[in-house]
Amino acid sequence: MSRKLAMVTGANSGMGLATSIGLAKAGMRVVMVCRSEARGKEALAKVRDAAGGDTAELMLCDLGSFADIRRFAAEFNSRGDALDVLVNNAGVVSLKRTLTKDGFESMIGINHLGHFLFTMLLLDRIKAAKQGRIVVVASGAYKAGRLNFDDFNLTKGFNVAKGYGQSKLANILFARSLAKRLAGTTTTVNSLHPGAVATNIGVSRETGFGKSLHVLLKPFFLTPEQGSETALHLALSPEVKDASGEYFYKKQAQALAGKAADDESAERLWKWSMEAVGLKG
User: Which residue windows are transmembrane per the record (predicted)?
Assistant: First the structure.
């Protein structure tokens, strides 16, 4: 009997790498999705060292490019593999307002829209699994976010907290909306808050800006391994095989506050997202 297959976005470092190692150690084959080939190869070697040589493979994808997401999905889907677990982990924090290749503000464009299109294009392969699980790494920062329906790209009054909070709120609403659409199937979708994890998110690779702050605060953060525990729980545990549309923290379902529980906003976001990424239905 072949091993189950998992896929992790942003698998080259931090929580994504820790999650990939955890899934591989649990006996799954892991597709590590990374933007950088060099960093991806380094991470792949770490997973293979930790869990065995044939446990993982690297596939490249830029979640800031709809064209590259479509290329990736076509390549993966052509293999015909059932995808048992998808962990949407990749995320960016943009200290300055930047745009994706498709012209969207980077945090809403990558954290939400990139993963929205990525998930929708792989959905048939997830539904082909005996019990497919989609795990969306969100954040408690959603509480400070709001959906700017008139200006998702934050052309006016941009700040990093506003952009990141909006994207993480969108993650949760996407998970809830998709769970409703998958009701009656064997595929589940849940989101989670990993806790305050010490990763390189928000640190500029070009300038190193933010690195000293991370060093200063690191003793107060969870390790990536600790931060990955809830994602691994949702991906692997039989305890949550029937849970869907829920939001988890420390392996426990949590009540959602205000905007994240708003069904009308969730449907408006779904409609906008479908149009933004060029999907119909």
Answer: none
